Amino acid sequence: MKSFDLIRKSLADRDCVPEPVGLNQSAVALILIPGLSGLDALLIRRAERPDDPWSGHMALPGGRREPSDRDLHMTAVRETMEEVGIRLDSTSLLGRLEDQKPAVARLPEILIRPFVFGLLERPTTTLSDEVAGIEWIELSRLSDHEGRATVDAGGERRLVSCYQMNDLVIWGLTYRILRGFLSLIGRLPR
C-alpha cells in the first residue's frame, strides 16, 4: 500500500536509535489499516483497575518490557497479542516514533517507545481482561476534534489537551503519540 510505503520511508531514520538503558521501559503499537477516508487506527479502552494510573483511559495496545523480550519491538508485539489477540509480524512493521515519557511527575518514570504497524485489513480481536473495549478511529477526523477537556487523572480533575470524539477522550501519552504521528503524515506527499 502506497501510504504504508511513505510512512516506512519517513520513519526509516529512527530505526537506528539505540535501546534505552537504566529506565523502566514500555512499548506500544500504533496499528493502522486502510479505512474509508484514509487510515484508521486501533485504540483500546483500558480496564478499570485501582492499581493502574492509566485505568479506563483510551490507549494504544502495549505495556512494560519483560526480561524475556529481546527488544522493545518484541514488547510491542507480545503486549498486542496478549491484550487484543492481534499477531504482528516484521512485514507489518512500518517503523517507530519518538520515545515518550509521562509529563506528570507523580506518574511512574518510564520510557514508552511507539511502533507503527500497517495491516491490509481489519484483524479479528480477542480482548484480555486488561482491555474493556476497542475503537477503530479515522485518523483524518482527529484534528477536527482537537481541543481541551476535563479528565480524572488519578483522582484529580485536570484540564488537558485532547482529541474528543463523542464519549472518547484521547489525552496524555496517547494524544501526544497520535498528534506526533499526524504531524508526520501531514508532511508526506499525497
Task: Describe the protein.
The protein has 190 residues and is of the alpha+beta class. Helix content is 22%, strand content 36%. It has helices at 2-11, 72-84, 139-142, 172-186, and strands spanning 24-35, 38-46, 58-59, 62-64, 93-96, 110-118, 131-138, 146-153, 156-165, 168-171. The strands form 2 sheets. Strands 1, 2, 3, 4, 5, 6 and 7 form a 7-stranded mixed β-sheet that branches. The two termini are 13 Å apart. The model has no long low-confidence stretch (mean pLDDT 88).
The stretches of 5 or more residues where confidence is low (pLDDT under 50) are none
Mean of residue pLDDT values: 88
Number of strands: 10
Q: Total helix count? A: 4
- Run of helices and strands: HEEEEHEEEHEEEH
Helix amount = 10-25%
Give the distance, in angstroms, between the N- and C-terminal Cα atoms. Answer: 13 Å
